[in-house]
Design a protein that fits this description.
The protein is mostly helical and 411 residues long. Helix 6 packs parallel to helix 8, helix 8 runs antiparallel to helix 9 and helix 10 packs antiparallel against helix 11. The longest helix has 22 residues. The protein is elongated, with a radius of gyration of 25 Å. 40% of the residues are buried.
Length: 411
């Protein structure tokens, strides 16, 4: 105490002895300390001043930009030094990731702004940490471009990202893990499954060694998706069962939910309808509370597949029709076509040829006004002919579904 009052304590002693004492005894100080730790994690910087002061200003900085045109945003970011901060760059990247599946074009713009900010960060920051942030910004840009289908641009962005990582001596392996798992998503969309699996395995190793639960959960789900789409459903199911045990249901509740949700999808695809059906009620309730709106629609689609697999065709038809209409109302033509194939197989099995032909004609009209790949048109023509000639089978429907999925895939 005498040394404290005399101003003779080092910074380390102040933090380890005095501040720790305050956190233990004062609820307000403890709350403030927890908030500082949260902001350090959110903005990815060890310095409390950067996390708190810049973090507080970042949303306000975005408010200045969001109603401007993209060209005006780029110009302001280039000219205004107050926008050239670490926390604002991280804020833009978080906004980009949040937007990526709702509005990929917006996500690209946000990531490009973040790249511009990262390239202009000055000497106030450690140069190797800056290299890491530039690598992250380019990886997020590549990820957004991938979602929009700009695979060549995405490849270029990831090369830039890896170039900055190669020059960094920060030792921050979590940045490497994030770049690896985002690049794995690109390889997944390129159907380069072996490379995608190798990348996620590298990321998983880093996250386990770093005890980083959130990143670990995300990458486990990513690996399961890659296994599923590469055709190894049994491996995907095993991985998801393990992930459900490994992901903390309290600390990572949303990831735990999606692990269970994805398990139902894989069980259904593999034909394990009884087990998938037993898991449905709990997931349905959880998704209605915590999931995105489309998650419940897709779960309803899976319910229809389970009902059909168990021979409950009335329930299946009701589910397929409701999901088909939901997709059509949202302008999601490809998804509407895929669920229509499920409905068509049901009609074919029950020899309801009139309804089958009507379904095919309606679907063609939906796509006539759309700019779709010729492969999709070919698949729909094949579907229409099969319905008209009353030769649609489950196997042919699967083949047509695969053609439609390939036609929708980014190029």
């Amino acid at each position: 105490m005498a040394r404290l009052l005399a101003g003779d304590l080092s910074h380390e002693e102040l933090v380890n002895e005095v501040a720790a004492h305050l956190w233990q005894l004062c609820p307000h100080c403890r709350e403030q300390h927890e908030e500082i730790l949260r902001l350090q994690k959110k903005f990815g910087h060890w310095d409390e001043r950067v996390a708190v002061l810049e973090g507080r200003e970042a949303p306000q900085s975005y408010e200045r930009l969001k109603d401007l045109s993209f060209d005006e945003q780029l110009s302001l970011v280039a000219d205004d030094a107050s926008l050239q901060t670490w926390a604002f760059c991280q804020f833009l990247l978080q906004e980009s990731m949040d937007a990526v599946f709702e509005d990929a074009a917006k996500a690209i713009n946000l990531a490009e702004l973040a790249v511009r900010v990262a390239l202009q960060l000055g000497e106030a920051y450690d140069p190797h940490w800056v290299l890491d942030l530039r690598a992250k910004a380019y990886a997020y840009l590549g990820n957004a471009q991938k979602v929009l289908g700009e695979l060549r641009s995405a490849e270029t962005a990831f090369r830039e990202s890896e170039g900055y990582l190669a020059r960094s001596l920060s030792g921050n392996t979590l940045i490497l893990a994030e770049v690896l798992h985002l690049k794995a998503s690109l390889r997944h969309d390129q159907r380069r499954f072996e490379e995608a699996l190798a990348l996620v395995d590298q990321a998983l190793l880093i996250y386990r060694e770093s005890d980083e639960a959130h990143g670990l959960g995300i990458v486990l789900l990513k690996k399961a998706k890659i296994l599923e789409e590469s055709g190894d459903l049994e491996a995907a199911i095993r991985l998801l069962r393990g992930a459900i045990e490994e992901i903390d249901s309290v600390q990572e509740g949303r990831l735990h939910l999606y692990a269970r949700y994805n398990l139902i999808l894989c069980l259904t695809l593999a034909g394990y309808f009884q087990e998938a059906g037993r898991l449905l009620p709990e997931i349905r309730e959880s998704l209605s509370e915590e999931g995105r709106p489309l998650d419940s629609v897709r779960l309803r689609w899976t319910e229809g597949k389970i009902a059909f697999g168990l021979g409950r065709t009335g329930e299946a038809e009701e589910a397929f029709r409701s999901v088909q209409q939901e997709f059509l109302s949202r302008g999601m033509g490809y998804d509407a076509a895929l669920v229509s194939l499920n409905l068509a197989v049901l009609f074919a099995q029950e020899r309801r040829t009139g309804e089958l032909k009507k379904l095919a004609a309606e679907l063609m009209r939906v796509f006539e006004a759309r700019d779709v790949h010729r492969e999709a048109v070919a698949a729909l023509i094949m579907f229409q002919k099969a319905c008209e000639e009353e030769r649609l089978t489950a196997q042919l429907a699967e083949k047509i579904a695969a053609m439609l999925k390939e036609a929708r895939r980014p190029r």
